[in-house]
Write a sequence for this structure.
């Protein structure tokens, strides 16, 4: 058993961006949000992720702009530190060590050098209590300094950071949101205060936010409708509906031109003051649970899983960006608690990514169960999946497992259900012409002693199909649908089932509810080996012989990576996470690693991703891989220190090869000298559009880059005149020698010299329009 510290568990993207309220920069150009242990910076114009502020070692719980410098931002984390950043350049300026977990951060314009933080109180009660403390930031030249001067401001405050806010004065105010909104006026003066109650939301109000001028109030809740209340007009309200998931946070820019709303579907919506959506920053959608497996789209290499209700989401792990949603249910989702609605519970791709199978159902009880099996075909024109076949009565009970065949020649889908049957589905054939049609139909129905099937799996070459029935595994031939053999499992119902790959394709693996992991040899139909381990997820790597097994014990999950040919693990990692792991997937690498270490070779061809019960998407990274990513990020600069754009990354290699060919074919002396404005032009063309100033500002600079000073023009004309005189003398001598050699002057064809050609070109370019005015002015 090999364990190494070179491999560590890291957040790979897809973290929550709705945990804390986002903030908008003073110029409304950037949106900053906490995402895992990072602070991400997005452009409000292009919605693109620009860069991340990386330095915290645990969850970032709060961010706020520095009131003394609008280009800086404070962040706090559970790691017990507060960090000050230059968020434009992504530079860490200073780290303040507090020494205890931090859960929210606030600043006040009238308290310079003071931060207000949410910390946990040490109490004897089981319920966790929080208090608000003020921390005085010490002035020090060191980059990391301890902040020891701390004083309590208020105790037993709400855990929700939205319940604490700072006004323009010193006092701290606390709000508790119900269905009604209560507005207080002159609340500092106890004898003069008044209040009014506003009502529109039919459920609890999650968040409130005043506009900077204080004339409007913004509210949001589970209805996913942003409501704007006008001060002094009780019945004057504006609505922006259908924003997605329920609204959790609302933020406003300092100039009041932009609003931001955070949603329960891990999304940030950028809204103009005119109540028009101008941008959407969509993270990995995380609902209450992921019902489908983690899948990889064979075409786009995107991660596919449950998205917003009734949808599948396609998420790019490489770019950490949401690509698109595929509407499976095709019904409007009603955001109401307790309402039984259709959900996508199963999904699978074929090996080429041409077909997608989905199962949607509603009804927790068997008597109320309603489900559909749908087949989706990939459309080359729209580059998306379109519905091909809907099967309303695929089984008489809930479908619990399904898989596509692994063969590229024929496509077959197998479903197993709690009606004691498994069915094979193929593309139908016309009864008259016997030609394949573009619809799906049932090809075979199988069962075994009326036992309920628990899982199904195809071999790597699709020559065998394994279907488990309770404690028995049946092996079938898809060509003849003959049951070849049965494998008796030791006590326990089978949970996971998978075949080996490549050189280990003769092995079949299975896990049971009795905490056993077993391996059979399909050539001898005998048990090869077994071990006692509680496997919560068994995940084979389709690109190698390796298999990953997640085991939950002693309140934490361990990882074992092994080959079916031998029970000795290639790699083990203790305490990967504190929750159970039920979803995992191997993702192919764009560039394979070249690790020779036995403990890291299993990561050469693919990378293992897994999802925890807390909806954290994690992966394993090696030190070599992190060093390579760091070095590649340093190389993203061209020779004149101009920022690299995606166009340069796409065309840079071709341009470098072309330059090499030109250098080989032409001497260095023949290379034309760059003009004075070339640097300015490169800066203009290579700088990302969202960080450029307005076009009106660039116009004068761009035009001036083409102009040449008068001094330079005069010097150039003098030098050209001297060159012309010398060339004329040389050409005259040469022409006389040629004439003497030919013996006759009359036989020579007249030819212009180079100096005469240049003079002729100059005359053609001369502007003689002034002569027209002179001629017209004559009597």
């Amino acid at each position: 058993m090999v364990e190494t510290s070179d491999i560590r568990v890291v957040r790979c993207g897809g973290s929550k961006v709705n945990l804390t309220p986002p903030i908008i920069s003073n110029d409304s150009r950037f949106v900053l949000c906490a995402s895992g242990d990072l602070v991400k910076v997005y452009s409000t114009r292009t919605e693109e992720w620009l860069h991340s502020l990386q330095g915290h070692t645990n969850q970032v719980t709060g961010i706020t702009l520095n009131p003394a410098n609008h280009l800086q931002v404070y962040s706090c984390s559970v790691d017990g530190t507060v960090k000050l950043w230059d968020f434009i350049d992504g530079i860490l300026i200073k780290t303040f060590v507090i020494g205890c977990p931090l859960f929210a951060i606030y600043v006040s314009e009238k308290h310079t050098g003071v931060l207000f933080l949410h910390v946990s109180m040490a109490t004897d009660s089981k319920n966790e209590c929080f208090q608000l403390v003020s921390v005085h930031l010490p002035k020090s030249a060191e980059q990391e300094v301890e902040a020891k001067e701390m004083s309590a401001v208020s105790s037993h405050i709400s855990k929700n950071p939205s319940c604490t806010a700072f006004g323009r004065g010193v006092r701290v105010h606390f709000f508790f949101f119900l269905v009604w909104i209560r507005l207080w006026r002159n609340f500092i003066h106890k004898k003069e205060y008044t209040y009014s109650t506003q009502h529109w939301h039919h459920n609890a109000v999650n968040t409130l936010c005043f506009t900077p001028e204080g004339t409007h109030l913004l509210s949001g809740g589970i209805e996913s409708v942003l409501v704007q209340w006008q001060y002094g007009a009780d019945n004057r309200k504006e609505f922006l509906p259908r924003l997605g998931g329920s609204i959790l946070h609302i933020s406003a820019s300092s100039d009041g031109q932009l609003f931001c709303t955070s949603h329960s579907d891990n999304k940030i919506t950028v809204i103009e003051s005119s109540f028009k959506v101008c941008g959407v920053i969509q993270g990995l959608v995380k609902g209450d649970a992921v019902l489908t497996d983690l899948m990889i789209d064979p075409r786009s290499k995107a991660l596919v899983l449950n998205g917003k209700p009734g949808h599948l989401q396609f998420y790019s792990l490489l770019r950490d960006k949401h690509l698109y949603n595929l509407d499976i249910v095709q019904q409007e989702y009603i955001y109401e608690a307790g309402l039984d609605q259709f959900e996508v519970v199963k999904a699978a791709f074929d090996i080429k990514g041409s077909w997608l199978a989905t199962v949607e159902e509603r009804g927790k009880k068997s008597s109320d169960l309603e489900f559909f099996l749908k087949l989706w075909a990939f459309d080359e024109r729209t580059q998306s999946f379109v519905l091909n076949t809907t099967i309303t009565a695929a089984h008489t009970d809930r479908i619990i497992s399904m898989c596509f065949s692994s063969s590229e020649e024929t496509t077959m889908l197998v479903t197993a259900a709690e009606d004691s049957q498994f069915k094979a589905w193929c593309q139908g054939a016309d009864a008259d012409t016997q030609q394949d049609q573009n619809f799906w139909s049932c090809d075979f129905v199988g069962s075994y002693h009326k036992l309920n099937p628990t899982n199904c799996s195809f071999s790597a070459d699709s020559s065998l199909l394994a279907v488990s029935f309770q404690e028995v595994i049946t092996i079938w031939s898809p060509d003849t649908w003959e049951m070849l053999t049965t494998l008796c499992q030791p006590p326990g119902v089978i949970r996971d089932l998978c075949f080996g790959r490549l050189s280990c394709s003769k092995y079949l693996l299975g896990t049971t509810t009795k905490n056993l992991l077993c391996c059979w040899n399909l050539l001898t139909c005998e048990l090869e080996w077994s071990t006692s381990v509680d496997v919560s997820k068994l995940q084979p790597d389709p690109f190698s012989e390796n298999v990953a097994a997640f085991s939950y014990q002693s309140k934490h999950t361990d990882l074992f990576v092994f080959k079916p040919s031998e029970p000795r693990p290639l790699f083990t990692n203790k305490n990967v996470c504190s929750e159970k792991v039920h979803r995992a997937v191997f993702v192919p690498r764009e560039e394979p690693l070249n690790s020779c270490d036995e403990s890291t070779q299993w990561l050469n061809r693919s990378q293992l991703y897994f999802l925890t019960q807390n909806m954290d998407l994690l992966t394993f990274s090696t030190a070599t891989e992190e060093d390579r990513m760091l070095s590649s990020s340093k190389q993203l600069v061209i020779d004149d220190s101009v920022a690299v754009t995606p166009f340069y990354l796409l065309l840079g290699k071709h341009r470098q090869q072309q330059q090499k060919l030109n250098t080989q074919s032409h001497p260095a002396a023949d290379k034309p000298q760059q003009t004075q404005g070339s640097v300015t032009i490169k800066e203009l063309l290579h700088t990302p559009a969202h960080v450029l100033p307005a076009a009106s500002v660039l116009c004068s600079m761009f035009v001036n880059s083409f102009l040449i000073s008068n001094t330079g023009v005069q010097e150039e004309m003098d030098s050209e005149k001297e060159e012309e005189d010398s060339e004329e003398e040389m050409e005259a001598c040469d022409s006389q020698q040629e004439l003497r050699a030919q013996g006759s002057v009359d036989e020579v064809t007249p030819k212009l010299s180079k100096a005469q050609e240049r003079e002729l070109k100059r005359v053609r370019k001369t502007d003689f329009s002034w002569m027209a005015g002179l001629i017209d002015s004559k009597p």
The CA atoms of residues 313 and 325 lie 4 Å apart. The two ends are 109 Å apart (CA to CA). The mean pLDDT is 80. The longest strand covers residues 566-577.
